[in-house]
Every structure is written in structure tokens, then in C-alpha cells.
Amino acid sequence: RRAAALAASSRPGATADGHRVKVFANFGKLDDVAPALAQGAEGCGLLRTEFLFLDRADAPDEDEQAACYGAIAKALEGRPLIVRLLDIGGDKPAPYLPIAVEENPALGLRGIRVGLARPEVLSTQIRAILRATSSGDIRIMAPMIARVEELRDVREVLLAEAAALGVAAPELGVMVETPAAAVMADRLAAECDFLSIGTNDLTQYTLAMDRGNAAVAGGIDGLDPAVLRLIAQTCAGADRFGKWVGVCGGLASDPLAVGLLVGLGVAELSAAPGQVAEVKATLAALTREHCEIVASEALEASSAAQVRALAANLLRKAG
Ligand code: PEP
Ligand code: MG
């Protein structure tokens, strides 16, 4: 099994019967690149750019951001890098971007709402990313999208800045982290280039359980059938417009979830850097048909516990 896992990590991600599923890694700093590549990561499906913005007195300027994104793109040696636009808010505060104290930060000014409320922050970051595109295969995605208009607003800034710099605008993806985005996935897919499901937030908002609240966080389970139904709806909506769907939340790192996600139609899994080899090995032990059968059973389940039992059975059969 160890030898098979090692062999799987050096090959492109795929099921045992050759159905291709890209296995990417999530980065929160430049130092994440090397260990992820050592595990066989095929790209970065989520660069959490917050690392550049938090724990400091002043915002990073355009030059600093461009150098940082460019360095990560270079280290990836041509593999895709999906840069997430700044995702801060009341839950992840930055001193130079004061956000009024909110009673309910999870439902407040966070994610893309911050960038749209502070156009100079969004434009500076987008210009920096555009300048870094000469260093690799860079794409952009927007966090916490809840409405199609937000995507349009980001697209407008991206196109304007790209035109001003005289460079081509890279692909623009939407993070599906709100039930609204999952339900509206077809309308979003009509206007974006790809969708990436942030299962951490999608689960929090679907179950109405605050991921930061110890009293309820222990009960949050991304394998809840309610979440799986939203993932299925996202894949169906994206498919109508020929767009691919990835998962960059915690579920992508969970061997129990891998088969279900593939069976639901997910084409790219972006895992924690240390989990990439395990995800590839898990994929290599499953067939697409088995994944699809278990996914359709999971959509009929009435509890996360039942989904977990189905998924564990799939893994056991795969050996
Ligand atoms: C998510 O919500 O699943 C996600 C990937 O974003 P973050 O965990 O950074 O909020
Ligand atoms: Mg999130």
C-alpha cells in the first residue's frame, strides 16, 4: 500500500480507472510550496493571501504583493496558482483596515464585501496579481460570493486594471462558500471561469453553526447530507455552462470525503500541503463508478453519520 501510494504521488491525480482529478494544495505562505510539491501537488488551488496582510501595522503595497505572488508562481514552475482575493473581516481583523465591531462577524463585512467596500484595497491587490502573471500560470478567485452582482463588480475591476496595465486578464473563479452561491451556481458559472467550494464556510452557513464558536463548532460536519446536496447542486449548475468545480475547503483533505466529492462531479481537490500524497493514493484506489454510486446513496442519507458509514464502506472495499 505504501509503495502504491508513493507511485500515485508522482503521477497526475486519477482514479484507478483513469478518471482525471487534479490534486492541488492550499498555501498560506511561500514555505508551503516545497513540501506540497514533494507530495506531488499539481498546482495551488487556494493561496490564502491574508498571510501578507495580517499581523502588521500597514498594508502591503502593490510592489510587495506583486513580488510575493510572483515568487510563489515561480516556485510552482508553471503549475497553476489560484490566488484568492483578500478574505479578512471581523473574524480576521487587520489594524489598518478598521471594521466596526459587529455583533455577527460571520454575517458581516468579510471576504469580497471588504474589497468591494474598499475599492483601493481590491484594485491594488488585483494590479499586483496582474503584474505577477508574467511569473507563472496565475488565476484569481473571489471569496464569500453571495450574489452574481459581486462577481460582476470584481470582473469589472479586473478588466479595467488589466486594460490599464496592458495585460490579459487571467481566469476569474468564484468561491462557493454561501448556500446562495451553491443554489445560484448556474448563474455564477455563466459569468465566471471556474468555481471552488470552500467547504469550511459552506458548512458553517448551511448548518448555521459558527465555526469559531466552541459551543457548536464540535458538531459541524462537512459530510452532512445538506452540504453534499449543495455541492451536487453546484456541480450541476457549473456543468450547464461547461465550467469545472474544485474543492478547497477541509473536505478535500479528508480521505473519507474524496470518493464522495469525485462522485458528485468535483474535478479538482486542493488539500493541505501535508495531505496531498494521501489524497492521490485514495483516488488511485477508487473507481469513478463506485464513487458515483456512493455519492448518489449519500445524497439520500438523512445524517452525517450515515454518510460517514457509506464513505467508510467505500474505502474498505477499495482496500
Ligand atoms: C473555506 O471556507 O472552506 C475556505 C477554504 O476558506 P477559509 O477556510 O480560508 O475560510
Ligand atoms: Mg472560507
UniProtKB/TrEMBL annotation:
GO molecular function: kinase activity; metal ion binding; phosphoenolpyruvate-protein phosphotransferase activity
Ion transport among keywords: no
Similarity comment text for this entry: Belongs to the PEP-utilizing enzyme family.
Superkingdom as given in the UniProt entry: Bacteria
Keyword Transcription: no
Residue ranges of coiled coil: none
Subcellular locations according to the entry: Cytoplasm
Keywords recorded for this protein, A-Z: Cytoplasm, Kinase, Magnesium, Metal-binding, Phosphotransferase system, Pyruvate, Sugar transport, Transferase, Transport
Provenance organism: Novosphingobium guangzhouense
GO annotation, biological process: phosphoenolpyruvate-dependent sugar phosphotransferase system
GO CC field: cytoplasm
UniProt-recorded name of the protein: phosphoenolpyruvate--protein phosphotransferase
